[in-house]
Design brief:
mainly alpha, 76% helix, elongated
Amino acid sequence: MSDTSVDASLRARAHVALAGLQRSAGDIGGALANVDAAIDLGLADADIRLLRAGLMFRLGRTEDALDDLDLALGADPALVDAYVLRADILLREGDTKAAMEDLGEVRRLNPNDPGPYRVRGRTFLRAGDAAAAADELDQAVRLDPDDTVSLSLLATARMRNREPEKAIAAFDRLIAMDPDNLELRQVRAAAHGQLRNYDAAIADYTRVLDATPGNLEAREARGVALVFAGQAVAAERDLAAVLRESPDNLRAALFRGSARFQQRKYAMAEEDFDRVLTRYSGDAETRLNRGLARLALGRPQGAIEDFTVALKEKPDLELARRRRAQTYLIAGDFDRAVADFDALPEPSPATAVWRFVAAVRGGRADAKAKLQEMTRGIDPTVWPGALIDRLEGQVTVETVLREAARNPDFAQQRLVETHFIIGQLALAEGDVQTARTNFIAAMDRGTVEFLEYQGSAIALAQLNIGRN
């Protein structure tokens, strides 16, 4: 090598060193001038092109940066940092496919580096492909178990991919590393809620609220979890606090209505459901809930109206159709009751009993034949087997009542149901006294939330016969 060449090389290296200092000091323009001077002196290897690309990128000159990266990779196809930078630029430019190809190359060249997996995972997540994101991020976490960024992204991907159990496993690891991170606890609570682990969800939300009592999002979410956990009083308290601060929060109003319904505060529950339906009059679930409240308040026609709207909006809402069928029967519209029972996709033995009563009350000739068809093959020892046997004339009322009371966990419901059904059939036969006796027994044994209790009260009112 000639002295001139050595001198040019030394001066080029000096320019590169100076460029590095200027870049660190934020003088990107000066750094670029020194890099160009080094290139003019013949230093044009892959590393200098990568350095120049980085400077161009910081100056916002992405096309020039990409040109330099192409030159760098042409000189050294294994230059990992060049692929990483080009992928970053391509992602920002919206060329996700090309960026992912570069990151794939990084992964091939350095399979033990979690970085490319993390970036690819984040990119898949942004693109809405949670399953692919989870695969990439899972590998990143395997390579670096303490990588909290990848672990957090993995938990998010699992949640979006409807894998709450796996999301919780990731959140557990994150919270073990950062026990005071309230944001992580709040998201883990949501995952527990998806799995119906309501006690665990409530515990996480409570930890969050102990530290940040003004967190309305966490308070609302805890209120919802409390509703599902059957803790209606605490749920109403949380949701009322949310509504005081945010009166237009319709989700809070809906679930407060559910909490009030659980407490048999039916009129107050109806008010909350009204609040929601003022804005969203066709919401099927809210219509169903308000219909149930109206039924509990002894207003079957209003309940039927709500169930009908619910079914118009959501024809496969089976509970709305079942309750409308039962309410039609209670209201005395037996043909419509039978039509709804027949429209249920998978009628149960209990449905068969109600359908039989509606058919008998409506004077339909197919009542018994249809009952036998719908209950063929059922185990007669399982409820309502004894009640069906009574409908077919095979056992006495006393036998049915004895069977209904056999299981303490279900005795109240079954006894109320039995008395209501027997009362309805007595009316069909014109035996008002037996009907009265059984409707009163249903009300004595039951409480207002039982449909048969409401049906008995309405039947007595229709007969103009009081309970006493």
